[in-house]
Amino acid sequence: MNVFRLAGDISHLLAIIILLLKIWTSRSCAGISGKSQLMFAVTYTTRYLDLFTNYISMYNSSMKLIFLAASYATLYLIYLRFKATYDHNHDTFRVEFLLLPTVVLSLLINHDFSPLEILWTFSIYLESVAILPQLFMVSKTGEAESITSHYLFALGSYRALYILNWVYRYYAEGFYDLIAIVAGVVQTVLYCDFFYLYVTKVLQGKKLQLPA
Questions:
Q1: CA atoms of 102 and 70, how far apart (whole Å)
Q2: Which tens digits make up the pLDDT trace of 16-47?
Q3: Of 32, 48, 116, 190, whose CB has the highest number of CB atoms within 10 Å?
Q4: pTM over 0.70
């Protein structure tokens, strides 16, 4: 493991902690897209089906379990524990426009036409666009709480750091995964506008508000 992947995993873990703490301490999931969180849960479930059949390391297995547990804990908080605070009126992105293309793409472009490999590929494609309902929700409301902004920044940083991880692995190990790289680039590009607003507003103590 290299420093970029480790930093990416830490950033990902930090994003999850920020999100769960935000919901639990405020006793509210206002401003959080349940649809994005549902797609992240599907992403981790389909990606980590090999959890008990393909052991790599204690670190790898532990991170998989953490991401799975955290994703379902988040869904529990949004759809059950604090359901009354869920802003379904603004969480209106049509997720079928993301799910159907990623299913088709995973069937057409994959490393091996086998069930686990197709599901892994599907998870890579789905994760690259899973944040869109959340970004769409922010665009509809026109603003985001600072803690939600920190969550999004940490989540976007995780993918950007993973791109550096792939660059490092290419030059240090001669290894690359084109599917993961392209999907990671797409996902990072989706965050670009948000990154700009985060740096120019949130880091300067202002509330993240989109231009009218």
A1: 23
A2: 999 999 999 999 999 999 999 999 999 999 99
A3: 32
A4: yes
